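Lecture 7 notes: from sequence to structure.
We start with the chain below.
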Amino acid sequence: MSSLSSTAADRLSPDDARAAFGDQLEFDTPLAPLTSYKTGGPARLFLRVTSAEEIVAAIATARRLEIPFFLVGGGSNLLVSDDGFDGIVIKIDVRGLTVTDDTHIEVGAGEDLMDLVRFAARNSLAGIEFLAGIWGSVGGAIYGNAGAFGCEIGSVVESVTIITPEGTVRTVDPEYCRFGYRDSYLKESKDVIVSARLRLEAGKREALEAKIDEITTTRDAKHPNTGCSAGCFFKNIPDERQPHGKLPAGKLLDEAGAKDLVVGGAKVFDKHANIIVNTGTATSSDIRRLADLMKAKVKATFGIELQEEVQQVGKF
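Predicted structure tokens for the same chain:
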């Protein structure tokens, strides 16, 4: 096994670990390929799960053995430590896309968000075109209430099937989720998203697909098409005087002079000051240090403390 520091995870022999978690368990699995930044070290233990039952079992086993665990969806909003994660990473790979009741879609948390958007259009269902071009999984999008153009996925969620910290599978409504700007109660409650039911409306396939292509083209013009990125690194600032009630963090970063910042192989994207790009040689440490410089610039110029959208895993 790797040279990470000794933990409960590495006190288990491979045979004992597989006996506990199953034959699909992997060891020292690289996490960089699972993230949009393409940086970070390995997971000491790694397991893909495809059902609520498998998720419950994996988490229960990790807790029983006192092994730290982290759940990964699409990996689009993730910065993994260069040292990796000294526990078990559980990859949520619950799939499924089904139209029910004419205007509803049942979707697994592990489905790609863009696949959901195009699936809805193919079935002449409108209401989530604004999500076009956003990277990541459906579960991650709901967890962080992903959105664009003043719209958020929480507005179309009718119910979410979750696993509570106690290991109970239950279905909850949007009121339980308490969706906020790039946020939901699910972050605080530590519930795990298994699937969701979305409430859409009838539309015309050709018009929907044209709108999706238009939005994707618009996003592509503002986002990197070379290098690796996680999209916007920082949240916008709540401000009712601004369009959509938010002051763009990118505007603050631009005016603070952040676009010229570079640390190692990480640089601020020249077309959008709230995006950090891995130019090909960046480490996660480079990206973290660059983000800290960006925050410091805005703090010094405007007295505003930026808050990260990107989630960190492991020690920095």
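Points to note: DSSP finds ten helices and 21 strands in the chain. Residues 284-302 form the longest helix (19 residues).
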